[in-house]
Amino acid sequence: ANSVQVDNDIRIRRELITLKDLIGGGQFGNVYKAIYQNPETDEKMTVAVKVCKTDAEPADTQLILQESSLMRNFRHAHIISLIGVCVDSPMWLVIELAPFGELREYLQQEKDWLPNKTLILFCSQICDSLVYLHSTRFVHRDIAARNILVCSPQCVKLADFGLSRALDYDAVYTASRGKLPIKWLAPESVNYRQFSMASDVWMYGVCVWEIFSLGIKPWIGVSNADVIMHIEQGARLQCPDKCPPSFYNFLRNRIWAIEPHKRPTIDQIFGIVCDVKRQIDRN
Ligand code: ADP
């Protein structure tokens, strides 16, 4: 009945999926652990299935599908991969399972023993995934610890970017959730709704800050309106205890430059992150 256009190779027959435990609920619907039986190899694999809410607008469904096809083309060690989609309502998105869940929760739970080595490893992995996305000219627009999942104690992956882009950003965050992620956004994104590789770089900086803060949210106790004012007056997030000071200065002075063109590219940042990582690994 619906005329949703989609590449056939992205479709998965629903009979091949068995839903298991509920993992969590998000803005688009519930996420379940599930078993997927690959029709070509007959092998069973554990996956995550996002069951999209049935009240989604048809236009949203179309957008989700378009972005899903795009996302399918991204193959990277630190990006959660999309396995396929059961298209008919309720739409199911079948994605790679991250057994250790959300990064923020993981950091909070494991904070007493997590070494700096691991924190910088996570920073380097996310940076690596952005180097890859930016090399394809893809702008993520929602880089934050809440969008990073933990696949193993030594491996994190960027998740879920198809959806945040697919639906109108402002509509999703302001109208339905009242949740424009102001505290993560570059000033030009807040002021002019401009998103670019340079605004991703700013957000990556906030994400690094979250990692070294072991899952604390940025600007706690400060209102959204005050955050942008503070930033324009030159204030920045403070150095987390665990963050090497030289790396913090790089965040503060370069990555969080007010003018987008003054920020380093993600490739330049990757070089710096690798240097910091080597230093930490030596100690
Ligand atoms: P939101 O819509 O708020 O971004 P999601 O729908 O992405 O949330 O996810 C909802 C919950 O499901 C979260 O708690 C997240 O930890 C979990 N989750 C989402 N995707 C995966 C996955 N691939 N592997 C494991 N857990 C996941």
Automatic annotation (TrEMBL):
Coiled coil: none annotated. The lineage of its organism: Eukaryota, Metazoa, Ecdysozoa, Nematoda, Chromadorea. This is Protein kinase domain-containing protein. It comes from the Eukaryota. Residues 17-283 form the Protein kinase domain. ATP binds at residue 50.
